[in-house]
Design brief:
Protein name: Trehalase family glycosidase
InterPro entries: 6-hairpin_glycosidase_sf, 6hp_glycosidase-like_sf, Glycoside_hydrolase_63, MGH1-like_GH
Distance between the termini: 56 Å
Number of helices: 18
Number of strands: 11
Organism: Streptosporangium longisporum
Pfam families: MGH1-like_GH
Strand order of the largest sheet: 3-4-7-8
Helix content: 40-55%
Largest sheet: 4 strands, antiparallel
Order of helices and strands: HEHHEHHHHHEHHEHHEEEEHEHHEEHHH
CATH architecture of one domain: Alpha/alpha barrel
Radius of gyration: 21 Å
CATH topology of one domain: Glycosyltransferase
Family: Belongs to the glycosyl hydrolase 63 family.
Structural class: mainly alpha
CATH class of one domain: Mainly Alpha
Amino acid sequence: MTTILEATPPGGGRWTPLRQAATHVLLDNWTGAATVPSRALYPHQWSWDSAFIAIGLRHVAPRRAQRELETLLGAQWDDGRIPHIVFNPAVPLDAYFPSPDFWRSSTAGRAAGAPRAVQTSGIVQPPVHALAAWQVHLADPAESRRRGFLPRIYPRLAAWHRYLATRRDLGGGGLAAVVHPWEPGLDNSPYWDAALARVEPAPPHSFRRADLTHGSPSDRPTDLDYARYVRLAGVYRDHDYDDARTPHAFAVEDPCFNALLIASEHALAAIARTVGADPADARAHLRRAEETTAALVDRLWDPAAGVFGARDLLTGEPIGGYGVSGLVPLIVPGLPAQVTAALLRTAHGPRFRLGQVHLVPSYDLTAEEFDGNRYWRGPSWFNTAWLIHRGLVRHGRAGSARVLRTQILTAADSTGFAEYLEPYTGQGRGIRRFAWTAALALDLLHSGERDVDRDVEERDADERDAEERDTGGDGVSTARGEAGATR
């Protein structure tokens, strides 16, 4: 095992080749309107991938980063959902499964307002989009204003958050629920084993996995897991993607999904002020962020374990275990101090060994279910490491943040932008030239701790300014004046 404790923060020209290589990955994966995660395994546009990709693209091509998000939002459904896949009609149907003819979005999703002109999936992914949009705007505010970027996408992002806060509050406790393991992005995490066990698998002859053409079976979810994924998606489709009417066999409140919703509500408040929306809109976003934070702590925090867990809404019981999803709430502003302290202890403890293994394992290193090679059952992923890096910066853990940043950049370089890593050896697993790995490496190369810290401070200052305006300050005219410049 390689222990990484004395890492030196990257700097200077040492990383110039990595910048160039990462940029080329994004250029090569660009389709003309969006970026595919991988030309081979993932040949369409994925929802949270595009958000992370835009965060990296903003440093080298701000207009393309805006286009990335605009293309995704162009496939939004009338009910507000942003589908997890937007299909490229030029790609053969057998290149990926489930393909458009399985989802049948334009017919099965008609009542929910699925677009007619583009085919999509019917499920969603974590709501990173408003956070990404705000970051993209800050990268080149002049170009953003010239193109009217924020005013055009703000209503769509607000509708997306309304969908999650209303139709997806299946537990009635103020958190968004996920109805398929693909939705929280941690597809085959041990978190979901018990909930998935009650799902009747789809017959083996009813589908053909395309992923095994490009990946080793030892890296990917099992056939049994996949058969259950297919069953859940098919039942949702056959009930017209109606959240209230579908007899969900899988309905879970996930901490990562809701932490990203909270972070994006804070970003949406900043966007609302920038576009000159009614001041009540910004206040509403901040209020929802605070209410969702309180619900997150109340419903998903496990003080005995020192980590956030998930909740199975069919049984009403918490889901135990230590997944990286439970650490991601470090990005949330306003967590109680004792919660933050416990999360940091857990991250550095034996279950994740932050700074001692490569990046952040996706599941408990000490658990029987841990598998360092198989997708989300243990490997370290670059996007969750990037999120935890932001959380470390937010909470003043500069040393740990520098070590993690160096690990991310070193691993991206040494593995050829692998999809994920075996956490003990650092060996790249999955596919190479993976787009969000390249994008997030670019972001860390261009930003670093001080810029992330400054972004956190600026957003906190924006929120304080909003509170002053709400109590009679004179900042409203300033916000409206900036919005006037965008039109």
